[in-house]
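Design request, tokens follow.
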């Protein structure tokens, strides 16, 4: 993606920033909307690239979608004739298109979903998604880069997830929501976005209990009736701006957050010495004089989020000493290391472990965003670096951060 961001570092960021709706809740709720009868209106959906691509994918299936003047998103599936094969060209732009597997099987009894390409953070298999829908009765073939699934005969069942996969949990929830009988998911993902999906489906007449714990029970219902729903704020966007305060020596009030969703991030930021206070409007972050090194282990929620790992690595480059980062969720999520080294960082990678030596002041350089969160982390590194940093392929960043340039400029950053 050809977009280049230029950032001149060295300015402490001050002021307040409002967090947008959560990308990873918005995407799955847009998909779940196709299972409902009538017009769904979603509030708080961020206007980001991934949402625009998903709109194209859903429109290609025959769903009518439009942004309303009040900023909400209207989603109207056709009363009949929803296409069940996703466009290969469009779906390979967005891994989350794989969430159509469960929604189409639950509502149409068949699905042809293209296998999402691996992306820079790992192979991104779908074995747990397939195990889940097969348990509920789906016949699945994988060939020509597509998953072909049919589920004319389907009934609720018990599914154990070998890993608490977010996407697999979401696909099984959506299929089970309209599959007769009771489905029990064991070792389910517990992310806030899963809870938002369950609340959304229940608001349409679904019967889901236990979301947010590792056992989720779903009673299938024949009909889901569309309504209006506001999605949760983006905990990863919030965490990214919290680190922007800590890394630039500034002070930022991050507004429109749900503090419990941020506890792992708040805890680790406080260990680095930053002052983090939950206030009425949100979370107030004041940078520490000196950044204390900390060790990070990424884990499924409520562990430290893998989507914040690169951002913490950027911060820890400035710590007074060595930090150890272990990436336990994805097999290949250290691409940012080579880019940070171009800015003078001293980091050693051994398998799933990175040792960040710290004690350096990064300097501006020409770097490249390899994926969404690595791109965000390069922005953070650039904001604190000496001189100008040029971030190529910044399009990755616009996939998941609404109005990031405006938000940073309003905090005093020198960005263009
Ligand atoms: C979701 O991806 C998020 N994306 C990711 O956010 C996030 O990093 C991830 O969950 C973990 O929290 C969306 O919600 C759209 P997983 P997902 O299935 O569902 C392995 C961002 O930057 N696995 O929980 O794809 C997989 O290889 C993105 O916003 C299997 O082995 O994540 C990975 O190692 C990046 N088999 C681990 O589980 C499967 O069938 C976690 O994957 C499925 C997954």
């Amino acid at each position: 993606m050809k977009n280049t961001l230029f950032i001149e570092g060295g300015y402490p960021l001050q002021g307040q920033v409002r967090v947008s709706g959560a990308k990873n809740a918005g995407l799955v709720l847009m998909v779940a909307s196709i299972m409902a009868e009538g017009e769904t209106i979603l509030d708080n959906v961020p206007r980001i690239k991934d949402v625009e691509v998903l709109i194209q994918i859903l429109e290609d299936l025959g769903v009518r979608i439009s942004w309303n003047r009040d900023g909400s998103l209207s989603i109207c599936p056709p009363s009949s004739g929803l296409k069940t094969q996703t466009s290969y060209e469009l779906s390979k732009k967005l891994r989350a298109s794989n969430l159509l597997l469960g929604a189409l099987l639950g509502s149409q009894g068949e699905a042809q979903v293209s296998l999402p390409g691996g992306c820079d953070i790992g192979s991104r298999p779908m074995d747990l998604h397939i195990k889940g829908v097969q348990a509920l009765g789906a016949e699945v073939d994988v060939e020509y880069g597509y998953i072909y699934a049919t589920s004319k005969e389907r009934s609720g069942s018990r599914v154990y997830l070998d890993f608490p996969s977010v996407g697999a949990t979401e696909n099984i929830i959506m299929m089970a929501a309209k599959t007769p009988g009771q489905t029990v998911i064991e070792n389910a993902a517990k992310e806030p976005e899963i809870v938002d999906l369950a609340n959304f489906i229940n608001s349409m007449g679904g019967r889901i209990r236990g979301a947010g714990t590792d056992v989720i029970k779903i009673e299938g219902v024949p009909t889901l009736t569309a309504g209006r729903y506001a999605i949760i704020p983006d905990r990863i966007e919030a965490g990214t701006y919290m680190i922007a305060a800590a890394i630039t020596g500034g002070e930022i009030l991050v507004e429109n957050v749900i503090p419990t969703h941020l506890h792992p991030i708040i805890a680790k930021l406080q260990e680095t010495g930053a002052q983090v206070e939950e206030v009425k409007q949100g979370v107030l972050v004041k940078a520490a004089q000196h950044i204390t090194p900390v060790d990070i282990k990424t884990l499924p929620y409520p562990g430290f989020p893998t989507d914040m790992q690169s951002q913490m690595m950027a911060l820890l480059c400035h710590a007074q000493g060595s930090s150890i980062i272990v990436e336990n969720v994805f097999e290949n999520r250290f691409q940012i290391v080579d880019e940070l080294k171009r800015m003078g960082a001293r980091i050693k990678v051994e398998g799933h472990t990175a040792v960040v030596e710290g004690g350096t002041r990064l300097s501006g350089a020409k770097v490249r965003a390899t994926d969404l969160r690595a791109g965000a982390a390069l922005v953070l590194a650039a904001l604190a670096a000496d001189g100008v940093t040029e971030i190529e392929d910044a399009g990755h960043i616009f996939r998941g951060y609404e109005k990031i340039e405006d938000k940073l400029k309003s905090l005093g950053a020198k960005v263009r």
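Comment from the thread starter after seeing the answer: thanks! The chain has a mean pLDDT of 96.
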